[in-house]
Design goal:
Blueprint (H helix, E strand, L loop, with lengths): L2 E4 L7 H4 L6 E4 L2 E7 L2 E4 L17 E6 L12 E5 L4 E8 L2 E8 L7 E6 L5 E5 L6 E6 L5 E5 L5
Parallel strand pairs: 1-2
Antiparallel strand pairs: 2-3, 3-4, 5-6, 6-7, 7-8, 9-10, 10-11, 11-12
């Protein structure tokens, strides 16, 4: 285990890439422990820990707080794109605690780059694959989720 002194702005951003699991990092007087390359845990008092962590990392990308009307059961939930996992995560947080996590759209096997709520109350996803698409999620007549591309042919 090594100790590194880091200041911001970073004088040498490459120095951060040299960190090993378990290294101790000092950032502007705060002691930070490195668990692995996808998670930095802050040990100083007065700093809040993350509400949720994905290990192994899902490579979270864009996210949105859903406040639309098309999916009333999802109102107030967060939607997070997952580049590495190629899915969409729905996360419900109540009183500062995660009370529900659901993984959606794995069958698409698409890297979700961004998530947005539209003015029509639907969710829109942007994929970043070579043949990327803009997807619109809407409720299906049976109450199940239906996705439809708004790019190219429909």
């Amino acid at each position: 285990m090594a100790t590194h002194e880091v200041s911001f702005p970073l004088s040498d951003p490459a120095e951060v890439l040299k960190l090993q699991a378990g290294d101790e990092v000092l950032v502007q007087g705060h002691v930070i422990g490195i668990r692995d390359r996808t998670q930095i845990r802050i040990f100083d008092q007065g700093i809040e820990p993350p509400i949720t962590v994905w290990v192994p990392s899902i490579a979270p990308s864009g996210f949105a707080l859903y406040l639309g009307h098309a999916f009333p059961a999802w109102s107030g939930d967060f939607f997070v794109g997952a580049l590495k996992e190629r899915s969409l995560h729905r996360v419900r947080i109540r009183d500062g605690e995660v009370v529900l996590q659901e993984t959606l759209l794995r069958e698409l096997k698409a890297r979700i780059r961004d998530v947005r709520g539209g003015p029509d109350g639907l969710l829109y996803l942007l994929t970043d694959d070579a043949d990327g698409a803009l997807l619109r999620l809407r409720p299906a007549p049976t109450g199940t989720l239906a996705g439809r591309s708004t790019a190219g042919t429909s």
